[in-house]
Design a protein that fits this description.
The chain is built from 16 helices and 17 strands. Helices cover 28% and strands 19% of the residues. A hairpin with a 2-residue loop joins strand 13 and strand 14.
């Protein structure tokens, strides 16, 4: 359920964005909690140090719910479609009331739901607090839950069974000799981030997790996941970036357990602790915008409860950007309200969720990691050029060209010296869109730039930077318009955010 924007974590501390807390009668996205909770996390420069700091944070001052009380004390707020008692099931599309736990056996999908340990409880001998840690224990369809058994998660190379929501059982692509379970595309990141949480939260206990397949997934030393597990889950986390669903669940669990999953709040931490080369991609969901609009248009005063909730289930699972485009949501929300008897104003609720979600991820249209941020400071190695070109990462490049002064652009002490009166500094995006630029100069100068045909002139004080946001551009050229040597553009700071 998501799109993207990722942080390339080079000297970037986790984003702390102060936003208004949603204060309505349902679990929402609590921006204040998200910001304050990580106040002790001051450095992300070293993966093992970050892992240790997060371990200290998420393991202290916690509360727990007993395994038997997950049905009554957790799932009604952590795992229901907002404003209803309908279970949000990651293994099926079935409509279950959260108050109707249906046991432990089933011969087909649709019989009932129970509790799924995404990290099988047999791996840690059903010990507490892991056995009821809500971050990895989800309500799921009984039949699919039992079919998954204690098999490891992996991409399936050869399928033996495909379930209604797109989950698959079969032979693994990475664990090639094993039967594995592949969760539906829109929940791959949810599972991955649950495993990241478990690896860090219980890193001091991993040496004792010796049963079943646990040692194929976890290890007691940093980075706490085996090479194969790291490959699978870092890939899944980028294939399915963070969604509004996960953020809502994270806050609801925080209200109960008093700890958070940092890989939902700060998905950039994944790339710091578990180095990988994956890039965020748009998640595939079963439901399209057109299928949701069609389901809503088919609703009437005589529609059954299951029909109404099925349409709402489809809406909830859309990406944030698609939720904004759904037509006639008032018809859907009124139908849900009539069936649920809940007084929650769903129109206000989802407007707040969408707005807050997009603000947290800096305008991101539908789920995903935090914005892609290039390294903060321009670093170059050559000493002198007629023009200077470089790359901040594979998606952002820059080029400097001399102005009317006789001296060519040069590099000195990490500064790109563009020189006055016509010298240019260009920032370009490759297969992406620039969203914001911060350009700093070591010398007081004036620059001009043109956006959508409008020319702007700005001054940059010595040691200060020019900040531009909401750009949505492929490139931007800054031209130095200073006319003296004391008004050169000495680029000593550059930060760019972009979407792909």
């Amino acid at each position: 359920m998501k799109t993207i924007k990722k942080v390339l974590a080079v000297s970037i501390v986790g984003l702390s964005i102060g936003l208004t807390t949603i204060n309505i009668n349902a679990a929402g996205v609590n921006s204040n909690a998200r910001t304050s909770y990580y106040s002790s996390i001051t450095s992300t420069s070293n993966g093992q140090t970050l892992a240790n700091n997060l371990y200290s944070l998420i393991g202290k001052n916690t509360s727990s719910v007993s395994y038997s009380r997950l049905y009554t004390s957790a799932y009604p707020t952590t795992d229901v479609l907002p404003g209803t008692n309908i279970v949000w099931d990651i293994y099926s599309n079935e409509i279950y009331n959260v108050k109707s736990d249906s046991g432990s056996s089933a011969t087909s999908e649709g019989v009932g739901f129970n509790r799924e340990h995404t990290v099988p409880q047999s791996w840690f001998s059903k010990a507490t607090p892991m056995v009821s840690d809500i971050f990895h224990v989800y309500p799921t369809d009984i039949y699919v839950n039992n079919q998954r058994s204690s098999y490891v998660y992996d991409d399936v190379k050869t399928a033996s069974k495909t379930y209604k929501n797109g989950s698959i059982l079969g032979k693994g692509a990475n664990f090639t000799s094993k039967t594995v379970f592949e969760v539906a595309d829109e929940y791959k990141g949810d599972i991955a981030r649950s495993y990241f949480y478990m690896a860090i939260r219980y890193k001091n206990k991993l040496a004792n997790w010796t049963s079943g397949e646990s040692q194929n997934i976890f290890q007691s030393s940093y980075p706490y996941l085996t090479t194969t597990a790291k490959k699978i889950f870092t890939k899944w986390s980028h294939e399915d970036p963070v969604s509004d669903k996960e953020m809502i669940r994270n806050d609801a669990i925080y209200n109960i357990q008093k700890n958070r999953n940092p890989f939902i709040d700060h998905p950039e931490y994944v790339d710091i602790i578990w180095t990988n080369s994956y890039s965020d991609t748009k998640t595939n969901t079963q439901y399209s915008l057109s299928s949701v609009n069609q389901a809503i248009s088919s609703l009437s005063s005589s529609s059954s409860t299951d029909t109404v909730y099925s349409a709402y289930n489809k809406y909830c699972r859309l990406t944030v950007s698609d939720k904004e485009k759904v037509s006639n949501t008032s018809k859907l929300f009124n139908a849900v309200k009539n069936k649920s008897g809940n007084s929650l104003d769903l129109s206000s609720y989802w407007s707040s969720i969408i707005s807050t979600y997009k603000n947290i991820y800096n305008g991101q249209s539908s789920g995903g990691s935090t914005p892609v941020v290039t390294q903060d400071v321009v670093t170059v190695t050559k000493s002198s050029f007629t023009s200077i070109s470089g790359s901040l990462d594979s998606y952002i490049s820059y080029k400097a060209a001399k102005g009317s002064a006789s001296t060519s652009p040069a590099v000195n002490s990490g500064q790109i010296r563009v020189y006055q009166n016509g010298g240019t500094f260009t920032v370009s995006a490759n297969n992406s869109k620039i969203q914001s630029i911060e350009l700093g100069s070591a010398m007081a100068t004036k620059v001009s730039y043109t956006i959508n045909g409008t020319r702007y002139e700005k001054s940059i004080a010595a040691g200060s930077k020019l900040v531009l946001s909401n750009l949505d551009l492929n490139s931007l050229v800054f031209t130095c318009i200073g006319t003296t040597k004391t008004q050169r553009l000495y680029v000593n700071y550059l930060k760019v955010t972009y979407t792909k």
